[in-house]
Amino acid sequence: QSVLTQPPSVSGAPGQRVTISCTGSSSNIGAGYDVHWYQQLPGIAPKLLIYGNSNRPSGVPDRFSGSKSGTSASLAITGLQAEDEADYYCQSYDNSLSALYVFGTGTKVTVL
Amino acid sequence: QVQLVESGGGVVQPGGSLRLSCAASGFIFSTYGMHWVRQAPGKGLEWVAFIRYHGSNKNYADSVKGRFTISRDNSKNTLYLQMNSLRAEDTAVYYCAKDLHYGGNPIPFDYWGQGTLVTVSS
Questions:
Q1: Most buried of A43, A45, B34, B118, CB within 10 angstroms?
Q2: In A, which residues are within 8 Å of B66 by CB distance?
Q3: Is residue B59 within 8 Å of B34, Cβ to Cβ?
Q4: Is the CB of A13 inside 8 Å of chain B's CB atoms?
């Protein structure tokens, strides 16, 4: 079980706004470590979506935005589109673990 | 453009060994840290191992420590994962991934390969 908890699923109609939470603790997100987000389309390798809490790599639409506060982070998708249907994972570091990286539990976004 | 192409996956019996390769192109391989990440069928992502750009620093997840070895050949632009004493729970798609040059912590992975499936079964 990951130290970063995400809701198993979220859904929304096309055009709506959805948010995905990534809840951690004082040994990871709350300790100031950055949070990154990845999108994994069905059957495809993950793709970096947001890095450093709120930065978008070149080519990522500005419909995707990230934020961090306290021991949690969030990914928001505004103007939801059918092609956004995918799994989303947050990633950070936890100083109580020996692993260099921890991924969140993952969230399936369904476009209704 | 950046390309990462994994190979070497397949079916292996419990206790067996396998070596994965990741051929890199489109960037200066010798200047980037590299990772292996795996995903069991229907499950989430699990970071497996990391190697720094020069190859002398390596880190492993507890679940594979002592059984897996990450290495690289910068002259061949290739990353490797030697997997020994394989278990059923090692069954997964294995991805190689590249570090983004980034000043924060942790460093994100900006490019991933397409993955190679490893199945451990008798």
A1: B34
A2: none
A3: no
A4: no
